[in-house]
Amino acid sequence: MRCCSLPTCRSARSFCSWALLTLLAVPAWGQAPAKAPVAATGLTKAAGPDHAIVPGFERFYAEAGDKTVGGQLLLTELNCTSCHAVDKSWETTLGGRKQAPILDKVGNRVQPSYLRTFLSNPHGTKPGTTMPDLFAGETEAERKEKVEALVHYLAFTGNAAQQFSDPKNAAAGSKLFHQIGCVACHGPQGATDAAPLATSMPLGDLTKKYTIPGLIEFLGDPLKVRPAGRMPGFAFKENELRDVAHFLMQGVEVKLNANTKYAYYEADFGDKLPDLDKLQPKAQGESAGFDIAMGRRENNFGLKFTSNLLTKAGDYTFFVTSDDGAKLWVDGKLVVDNDGTHPPQEKSGKTKLTAGPHEIVVGYFNGGGGGELYVDFDGGGVKRQRIDPFLTLNKDGSPMKHEAKAGDDAFALDPDLAQKGKEIFATIGCASCHTMNDNKKAIESKFSTPTLAQLKLTNSGCLSGKPTKGVPHYQLSAPQQAALAAVVPVVAKPATQVTPVQKDVVAHTLTRFNCFACHQRDKQGGVETARDPFFTGTQKEMGDEGRIPPSLDGVGAKLTPEWMKQIFNNGTKDRNYMHARMPKFGGGNVGQLVDAFGSLDPIESVTFPTFSEPVRRVKADARMLIGDKAFGCIKCHNFNNIPATGIQAMDMATMTKRLKHDWFHRYLVNPQAFRPGTRMPSAWPNGKTQLPGVLDGDTAKQIEAMWVFLDDGGKAAVPEGLAREPIVLTPVKEAIIYRNFIEGAGPRAIGVGYPEKANLAYDANNLRLALIWQGAFIDASKHWLGRGPGFQAPLGDGVVRLPDGASFATLASPNDPWPATPAKEMGQKFRGYRVSDDQRPTFLTSIGEVEVEDFPNAVAGTVAGKPQASIKRTFSLSGSGQNLYFRAAVAGKIEAAADSAYTIDGDWTLKVQSPGKPQIRTVAGKTELLIPVTFEGNKAKFSIEYVW
């Protein structure tokens, strides 16, 4: 499908620039205000800063602030302490040195031509870099010789292979880059009239530095290469990695030589690709990849491409995107079928390939409108990318020569130069900051420097504005020089306080890692005005709360230490309504914040109430409170990934893992006290409940009940009213039988809802009663709408899960362990069920020659003065059986009570009527209640009643 009639749209590697500009000019990044600056094609190449950029320093100390504190920041961020030793008493206060990028395998991701340019002139190549010029003050000849040796040494670690920059991926990548938080540190990228912000870390010209595969690998796990965490890692999906990398690498094109044979056909193919081999081609020739520009008219034409692909042995996936139909064959085998008349769509197929060359054939036709064809592949160590550069006309699979327009020039490794570069790496200062392993052993630095205490500050050394031979030259601003000059005399002496004040630890860490770019704490930091439009969300109604990362005030009182550690180590996307993501910085970098936040943000402890009711009833009340008939929490909050009925606020199923118990209680009573301006209302105004009939009308009990319920996480029952299109099955005059996938009862579950408001689910696969519950029966919408995938949980409350495994077993001795073998494998069979006039089922099974009838029935009754049904099961057996037992319960604790009753874990009661005396026993750490089956003649009968 095409948006104009330009014939160039038919090129497989072209893209309508008008369409892309139009797409990127629309403020479609969530709810971005109209004033938001717009990123377009081509990254900004404007002149960068004239000095090294440390964002925290530029924001808080370049024009004001304590010079000594700003100098402490520079000592670590410029890596001064990697060369100049500091007294150990300062190590904790400074927070340790900032480890420079690990250079192992740097040749796989960075192009040799960039290494040469960058090492020759770091500040000119990447304005704003904190990398010093190591060859300042040397003659041009000396510099060139040493740089070339270093380049060969670094390039010896790998081979950077370029690929296409795809405009389609770039368009999606631009949206991601400007939504998820990249702009917080790097600023917006693209055609914009705005000058780069002083606090932005420059990216430089990435097209000259990286290859697309190299950048994808780096973005997938930045901490692997840059463990210092200044570049954190986002939890990118694979397609997102490709999109962002292609956006950042716009302008890179691989110029392909002819590597594919094509045959061109003209005909009206209808809506299917014909067997092109049976048609006479109109023209034949060679093309660079699968280029449908070889078509000589706009509509009703076909192409057959033939080429070869050299592979390693392994599993491969091929992806074909086409408009209209296309098919892909490998060695004559159809692997991808994307046939038919359709707009651009992707289909994929997998195949196992041996090592060696394989013939690749692609058939394509365009019936009318737009035309499009792209083929990607994944496998053999190659992450998904365009297949075109890997194709070859050579039957043996040997590669053809291609060249990159924007990228590396010709480069041939020289082992002798590389060896010389290794020595320079150790002596010039590289090894003082960078890790570089050679034969599995890190190269040690031979660069000799004085300690900080020995430095002279009379505009000399690194602080000198004049390049000096043998001294790394930093491009420092006057404020940076002044801050360093102020701090060096201070840290030259032992620290007066070895253990820093926790408040200083927090401020220093948040500044070092630029956390203040997104978050505010103690009235410091927060999103800068110029970046504000790029922080967007999906819920406009939530205002700033739904798009701006939260304040860190009081975060130590709010979040559990375990959750903070998880965030630091893995990042998170708890706020699905917010486009910005919390990346991972690594616990080794920012883990000190866990204890610091905890000590600085105390929370007044709460005396948690206890309950006299069984916990399942407490959870039932909480489920009602959270649902739509009480406080309506589900109107705003998602629950276990089920969308809320209104705005999509944070998922309640994760709350007890995230939040501290005391904070939860105090916040729910008065949210405004903790987060002024929040849309979260108080369900207990002035601490008073609005539902006096629930849990004694006690506010603390109601809140604690909600905590207990939510502590079940993903296993908690779905709150009332959450289903979008519920189909609630409600038995009135007769029972309802519902056969389907029921959670906890398996794929062959038989649910039974009784008018008495007690329900059960029978597991026909394992011949056992699996669940019983009270109240509402079940919501059939999951299975009756659409294709009905997945398991449906019971709709009511008080769910009791009964023992797994076989219900009946033959034991030689009452003390023998209960068999772990499934009932069916022991010869037991499910023989269906019969129903009474009011649809109440009797389940039929057999145990060898013994026939079993199991009639469960709801019995009306009261518990604690309230109407509540029980379920009574009556077993009738016929045949002859010896040493046959029924396992009625498995629990942590089973106690005998009056009138042949047994309490199970102090929570519910099992009443037994049986000729044989039940036995409580403990086997393998489990307490079990066994009922011996007593036959009189060839008949046996007993009953059990579940009261809960």
Task: Describe the secondary-structure layout.
Blueprint: H1 17-25, H2 55-60, H3 67-77, H4 80-83, H5 91-94, H6 112-120, H7 122-125, H8 140-155, H9 167-177, H10 183-186, H11 206-209, H12 212-220, H13 222-225, H14 238-248, E1 254-255, E2 260-266, E3 283-287, E4 301-311, E5 314-323, E6 326-330, E7 333-338, E8 345-353, E9 356-366, E10 372-379, E11 382-386, E12 391-392, E13 403-404, H15 415-427, H16 430-433, E14 437-438, E15 441-442, H17 478-491, H18 502-512, E16 520-521, E17 524-525, H19 555-558, H20 561-570, H21 587-590, H22 592-600, H23 615-626, H24 655-658, H25 661-669, H26 671-674, H27 699-710, E18 728-729, E19 736-742, E20 746-753, E21 758-763, E22 768-774, E23 778-779, H28 781-784, E24 797-801, E25 808-810, E26 828-835, E27 841-847, E28 850-859, E29 862-863, E30 866-867, E31 870-878, E32 884-891, E33 894-896, E34 901-904, E35 908-913, E36 919-923, E37 926-932, E38 939-947
Helix pairs in contact: 3-17, 6-8, 8-15, 9-14, 12-14, 18-22, 23-27, 25-27
Describe this structure in words.
With 948 residues, this protein is α+β, with helices and mostly antiparallel strands. Among the domains are: 257-398, Jelly Rolls, CATH 2.60.120.1560; 502-600, no CATH class; 615-715, Cytochrome c-like domain (Cytochrome Bc1 Complex, Chain D, domain 2, Orthogonal Bundle); 728-947, Beta-galactosidase, Chain A, domain 5 (Distorted Sandwich). It is built from 28 helices and 38 strands. The strands form ten sheets. The chain has an eight-stranded antiparallel sheet with strand order 26-27-28-31-38-35-34-33, with no helix packed on it. Strand 19 (736-742) and strand 20 (746-753) form a beta hairpin. The radius of gyration is 35 Å and the shape is globular.
